[in-house]
């Protein structure tokens, strides 16, 4: 994996995005960049799952759950990241 994009950076970027009310597709782009840098599907899932307990509002949790669906491939083909 690219040293510039590791699991800790993914967690920080997604967490900051949720705190700052980023749109779903902005957060999706972060996941795509992580994958393109060599990030693994299982690691991405674990990182996102670790954020669930820290969420303060329902809308952030909804977006995080949508991102988890994308990571496992339970989404439309046009937004799928991992095969």
Structural summary, described in words:
Helix content is 63%, strand content 0%. The longest helix has 15 residues, at 58-72. The radius of gyration is 12 Å and the shape is globular. The chain has one domain (7-73). It has helices at residues 7-19, 24-36, 41-51, 58-72.
Spell out the blueprint of helices and strands.
Elements: H1 7-19, H2 24-36, H3 41-51, H4 58-72
Summarize the structure.
With about 80 residues, the protein is mainly α. It has four helices and no strands. Helix content is about 65%, strand content about 0%.
Cα distance, first to last residue?
18 Å
How many domains in all?
A: 1
H/E series? HHHH
Mean model confidence by pLDDT: 94
Number of separate helices: 4
Helix content: 55-70%
Give the radius of gyration: 12 Å
Q: Strand count, sense and closure of the main sheet?
A: none
The percent range for strand residues is under 5%
Number of strands: 0
Low-confidence stretches: none
Structural class: mainly alpha
Q: Kindly report the oligomeric state of this protein.
A: single chain
Task: Write down the overall geometry.
Answer: globular
Could you list some keywords that capture this structure?
63% helix; globular
């Amino acid at each position: 994996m690219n040293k510039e994009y590791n699991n800790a950076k993914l967690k920080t970027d997604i967490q900051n995005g949720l705190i700052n009310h980023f749109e779903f597709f902005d957060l999706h782009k972060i996941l795509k960049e992580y994958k393109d840098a060599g990030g693994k599907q299982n690691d991405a899932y674990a990182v996102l799952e670790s954020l669930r307990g820290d969420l303060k509002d329902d809308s952030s949790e909804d977006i995080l759950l949508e991102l988890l669906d994308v990571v496992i491939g339970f989404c439309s083909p046009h937004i799928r990241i991992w095969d």
